[in-house]
Amino acid sequence: MKFEIVLLVLAGLFFAGPLRADLPGAIAKVKPSVLLVGLYKSTNSPRFTLRGTGFVVADGNPGGSNLLITNAHVLPQPAQDDTESALVVQLQVGENGWQMRPAAVLEVDKLHDLALLRFEGPVAPALRLGDSGAVREGQAIAFMGFPIGGALGFSPVTHRGMVSSIAAAALPTATAQRLNEQTIRSLRGGNSFDIFQLDGTAYPGNSGGPLFDPDTGDVLGVVNMVFIKGTRESALTHPSGISYAIPSGFILQLLQRRQNN
User: Fold this and answer.
1) Taking a C-beta distance cutoff of 8 angstroms, is the pair 227, 240 a contact?
2) pLDDT tens-digit map of 86-130
3) List of residues 6+ apart from 196 with CB closer than 8 A
4) What is each CA distance from 5 to 10, 27, 36, 140, 147, in whole angstroms?
5) pLDDT digits (tens, 9 = 90+) for 202-258
6) Does residue 19 surpass a pLDDT of 70?
7) 61 Cβ contact list (under 8 Å, min separation 6)
8) Core-most of 43, 114, 206, 211, by most CB within 10 Å?
9) Could you give the domains of the chain?
């Protein structure tokens, strides 16, 4: 009987071992590179308006160049254009401090809802991009961002889950909440691409944040869309919805196009 118990314990350790990701270590690696993205206007109250999340990536320059990836829909839309508001990012300094830096849009990939920004100031640590082509359904993931537009405070929040599905999709417009006629036409027109569906619940404000490997911290995608049932406010008390992420391979393509131009 004792021998059988020992075998069961050893078997449990054997099978449980690979599943225990070093998530605390990955969070510590990712956190310094995750930034607030928003607008600053001195006459507003509050002066800073959060638009979403972004994270620092490298372009191969040994000196670094403060490049940031976020969603294209995080950027102000033409109808929302305000010449008195400045696009900025904020980096965490210490435990509770934030440092604001001016930012500029370098390139936008509307098809994959990605945007590449450059921000000013000392070089910030960049995240390493993983191979999204090797991601499998059922794979454990984590993602980080600023959920509910800062309602929980401007502190990076981490959620974990798994990739529940990898399927062809075409992104709707920034304001769309369901499959619409334009999206159906895009699917039929061959503009679809693989997207990750997640079983973890992201929230508005997480858009543009990194989806990463909970073992290594390598970026596997960009949190993109959150379909929420009910009101924005009820998402806090009754979280429900489906979250999606854009594979990191499209970030690599964006960076390569930038280098070639």
Assistant:
1) no
2) 999 999 887 778 999 999 999 999 989 999 999 999 999 999 999
3) 132, 135, 141, 163, 165, 166, 211, 220, 221, 244, 245, 246, 247
4) 9, 36, 51, 29, 45
5) 887 899 999 999 999 999 999 987 654 444 444 444 445 678 999 999 999 999 988
6) no
7) none
8) 211
9) 25-126 (2.40.10.10), 132-256 (2.40.10.10)
- Cα(54)–Cα(153) distance, rounded to whole angstroms? 16
What's the pTM? 0.80
Maximal CA-CA distance, the chain: 76
Q: Are strands 241-247 and 48-57 parallel, antiparallel or unpaired?
A: unpaired
At position 243, the amino acid (one-letter code) is: S
Q: Which of 51, 15, 16 is nearest to 149 (CA)?
A: 51
Q: What is the pLDDT of residue 80?
A: 55
pLDDT (tens digit per residue) in 45-76: 889 999 999 999 997 666 668 999 999 999 98
